[in-house]
Design a protein that fits this description.
Layout: H1 2-24, H2 29-75, H3 86-93
């Protein structure tokens, strides 16, 4: 979760820097548009990379959970999970 937050903060900081740079830079409209295009492509690249990392982390977590779930039947094979039936419960309650 912190990785997602870090990426979001990074992207917002990046966009804020672009905005400040556009406002303060003495460039022509054509140069500003070109810079914005490059910055947008860079932001897209960062976002795509973060998305891939998040997808890989989710896949690894899913595989780990699946493996743990597969071990449950053998781990608890000696435990009897069946409970008493209704008649047994009533007989114990009304002794």
């Amino acid at each position: 979760m912190s990785t997602t937050k870090d990426v979001a903060v990074g992207i917002l900081s990046f966009l804020a820097g672009i905005g400040i740079g556009v406002l303060l830079a003495p460039k022509s409209g054509r140069e500003i548009r070109a810079d914005l295009g490059h910055s947008a492509k860079d932001a897209l690249d960062v976002t795509l990379e973060a998305t891939k990392e998040a997808a890989n982390a989710a896949k690894e977590a899913s595989n780990a959970a699946l493996e743990a779930a597969r071990k449950i039947p053998t781990t608890f094979k000696d435990i009897d999970f069946t409970g008493p039936d209704e008649k047994e419960i009533q007989s114990e309650l009304f002794k």
